[in-house]
Design brief:
The structure holds 2 protein chains of 2 kinds.
Chain A: E1 6-19, E2 26-40, E3 45-49, H1 56-63, E4 71-76, E5 79-80, H2 87-95, E6 96-99, H3 103-106, H4 113-124, H5 130-143, H6 160-172, E7 178-182, H7 190-207, E8 210-215, H8 218-224, E9 227-232, E10 235-241, H9 242-247, H10 252-259, H11 300-304, E11 310-313, E12 316-318, H12 327-333
Parallel strand pairs in A: 3-8, 3-9, 6-7, 7-8
Antiparallel strand pairs in A: 1-2, 1-4, 4-5, 9-10, 10-12, 11-12
Chain B: E1 3-16, E2 19-32, E3 36-40, H1 47-54, E4 62-70, E5 73-74, H2 80-86, E6 91-94, H3 98-101, H4 108-120, H5 124-137, H6 143-146, H7 156-169, E7 174-178, H8 186-203, E8 206-211, H9 214-220, E9 223-228, E10 231-237, H10 238-243, H11 248-255, H12 295-299, E11 304-308, E12 311-314, H13 337-344
Parallel strand pairs in B: 3-8, 3-9, 6-7, 7-8
Antiparallel strand pairs in B: 1-2, 1-4, 4-5, 9-10, 10-12, 11-12
Chain lengths: 334, 345
């Protein structure tokens, strides 16, 4: 098998935060991302899901090198991320782009759409002639389904869905290989979300793009992802192919998360009691398994030992003491 | 069922930059005692404005016409003193972002106590005991200690529980929940929705659930109203609406939702976007995005007409959508990579 386009090895990021109110405050270590390993093959999509504070956005920033890891490393096309500011870094940056949640916040309100999209091209390719520049911008505008006349508009003159298309065109203009999309459709209306999801799939198909798709919306993640990683308190608790993971979740947290989604199709079907409580404070995580404080199955061992992420067969991985690892997969890995 | 609220011909115009922009184009809507009604629509459809206008909570730049009767009393144009006896006491409202609805510089106990004092005349130890009972009612453990917390010391889900406790302080007949779980995580959202259901069944309070999430509405209400561009476009019992949607917009919204199980198919999106309120098309506001629209739709505004005793639809083409089940996109197996691509592209 060829090397994955993107690989993270034991990625860890800790922040020092102040806890409690003055004058009794003290420093605490917040383990936002705590040993995340993953890989994404070329042309594939990895969905990263979890509730707020689980570290999915921090993971996204670490993957792009927008944040330095405390430990661990990120490999892009087999190479470690280059040092910020170096020539290699500039070359790498063109190939990996970020798409944010709030398109109006991500765009410069004083720049017209065409200037906005073309800015990155000016920085990375000052050698391009005016006509090449113009053609590239026009191609990007067309690729995301905007009309040519949108080029002269300002962001506030566009609808939310059109603005997100501009953000995508701006990310695509440098012909990247990887897009990290952080909640790219959460700020959009329902009828527009489907348009952008379809657009992302079309763009992946036409340009062979690789996506890391970060979202709390499990339905959309299932729609768009090949593989899915479920995060809880800075760690991956379950990993697997989108269809099999959503069809038969193995970790109690994934099961609860899926059961909590209200759905038009499943209305009237009795649901299990929702999980109690809130996710714990990442600066003061519980001992052992981080999920044990809310887990309906937790027993003594869950408080004593942190379960490792182990293969359970069929490309699935689960971090839970109750889920039997797949013996065959374990041997193959050893 | 007894009518609790009767809204007739409610219109709202906002004065903006010397012109008047109509946000609500005549809403007719009833809420029965103890009933759960869902109001769905995209941003700008007027679902929140309807209730802010009904309760007299809009700023002075808004001019409101029509009629809102609460227990036979007219709310539109009513003096402030009368509205204040109704707001909180008969009708309470909770909002999307609990942390910004609570005052950050006062303890939880004082804020719930204020509501108890205003609506029920409770003070001192009686108010504190009742506040503790309310926190217990909304599932906050350790109420006595929590009363001394500030909002920033509680999580988003806990703050929404505090908001619900404050809304319950006046023992209202109707709770307007405006996107009550939109800012919350999935597992916490499930907790809050379960809590609202439980309170409704126990107290017989009516609930209006405003949400953009069709799933949230589908599972929690008896009757659903769909709004688009300041108008009610479809109203039906929850099961009827989701099994047999009639309005092309409702059908479009349902087709645009990805499924949680079963084969993955390409989403059917609604083309275009919601028109701006100052730039509405001449005829039906949905016509430019509607695959069924004909000349009549582009030429004049369809009225909201009853299809039968329980359903109303605002569409000239309704007769073309008989009582047939909604057309589902054909499932395509998507187990393999290639098949997945074929299915979704």
């Amino acid at each position: 098998m060829t090397a994955p386009l993107l690989e993270a090895r034991s990625l860890t990021r800790h922040f020092v935060v102040r806890q409690g109110s003055w004058p009794a405050s003290h420093k605490a270590l917040l383990r936002a991302v705590d040993g995340v390993s993953l890989s994404v093959g070329k042309g594939r999509t990895l969905g990263l899901v979890g509730e707020s504070g689980c570290g999915k956005s921090t993971t996204g920033r670490l993957l792009l090198g927008l944040l330095d890891p405390t430990a661990g490393e990120v490999l892009f096309e087999g190479q470690p991320l280059a040092k910020a500011g170096s020539a290699d870094w500039r070359r790498q940056r063109q190939l990996m782009q970020m798409v944010y949640q709030d398109p109006l916040g991500a765009l410069d309100r004083r720049l017209k759409v065409a200037e906005q999209i073309g800015e990155a091209l000016e920085i990375h390719h000052p050698e391009f002639s005016r006509s090449i520049h113009r053609d590239r911008v026009a191609a990007a505008i067309e690729a995301v389904g905007l009309q040519a006349h949108h080029a002269d508009r300002y962001p506030h003159e566009l609808s939310g869905g059109q603005r997100q298309r501009v953000v995508l065109a701006r990310a695509l203009i440098l012909q990247p290989r990887l897009l990290v999309c952080d909640e790219p459709i959460s700020a959009l209306d329902v009828s527009i979300q489907a348009q952008v999801v379809n657009l992302l799939l079309d763009l992946q198909h036409s340009f062979g793009l690789t996506y890391v798709f970060i979202s709390h919306d499990l339905k959309v993640v299932r729609q768009i992802s090949h593989d899915v990683a479920v995060m809880y308190l800075g760690r991956i608790v379950e990993y697997g192919g989108a269809e099999s993971l959503f069809h038969a979740p193995q970790h109690p947290y994934t099961q609860a998360l899926l059961a909590a989604i209200p759905s038009v199709q499943q209305r009237g079907i009795a649901r299990p009691t929702p999980l109690q409580g809130d996710p714990p404070d990442p600066a003061a995580p519980p001992s052992g398994c981080a999920f044990r404080t809310r887990c309906p199955r937790a027993v003594q061992i869950c408080a004593e030992a942190m379960p490792a992420l182990r293969e359970t067969g069929g490309g699935r991985k689960v971090a839970c003491h109750f889920v039997e690892p797949d013996a065959a997969a374990g041997l193959a890995a050893a | 069922m007894d009518k609790l609220v009767e809204i007739r011909g409610l219109t709202v115009d906002f004065a903006q930059g010397g012109r008047s922009i109509r946000a609500l184009h005549g809403i007719d809507l009833d809420v029965g005692a103890g009933e759960a009604v869902g109001l769905v629509g995209e941003s700008g459809s007027g679902k929140s404005v309807t209730w802010l206008a009904a309760l007299g909570l809009l700023p002075g730049t808004a001019s409101i016409r029509g009629s809102v009767m609460l227990d036979g009393r007219q709310m539109v144009g009513a003096p402030r003193s009368m509205l204040e006896t109704l707001r909180g006491r008969r009708v309470a409202m909770i909002f999307q972002d609990p942390s910004s609805s609570l005052n950050p510089v006062f303890r939880i106990g004082r804020q719930i106590g204020e509501a108890l004092g205003l609506h029920r005349g409770l003070k001192g130890a009686a108010a504190e005991a009742e506040a503790k009972r309310l926190l217990d009612r909304v599932g906050i453990a350790n109420g006595a200690r929590r009363l001394r917390d500030y909002p920033h010391e509680l999580s988003g889900g806990m703050n929404q529980r505090v908001m619900i406790a404050m809304a319950l302080a006046g023992e209202p007949d109707l709770l307007i929940a405006d996107e009550p779980t939109t800012a919350l995580d999935a597992t916490v959202q499930a907790q809050i929705l379960a809590l609202l259901q439980e309170i409704r069944h126990e107290s017989g309070m009516a609930i209006v659930l405003i949400s953009h999430d069709l799933g949230v509405v589908a599972e929690n209400v008896d009757r659903v109203c769909v709004m688009y561009a300041g108008r009610l476009v479809e109203e039906a019992a929850s099961d009827t609406l989701f099994d047999r949607p009639r309005h092309p917009y409702t059908r479009g919204l349902l087709a645009a939702l990805p499924a949680l199980d079963g084969p993955r198919t390409r989403l059917v999106s609604i083309p275009g976007s919601v028109p701006e309120p100052w730039n509405l098309p001449k005829g039906c506001a949905f016509a430019p995005r509607c695959g069924e629209a004909d000349e009549a739709c582009h030429g004049s505004q369809p009225p909201l007409v009853p299809v039968n005793a329980a359903e109303r639809v605002l569409c000239f083409r309704t007769r073309y959508f008989p009582d047939a089940p909604a057309s589902q996109p054909q499932p395509v197996p998507a187990l393999q990579d290639a098949a997945f691509r074929e299915a979704v592209l």
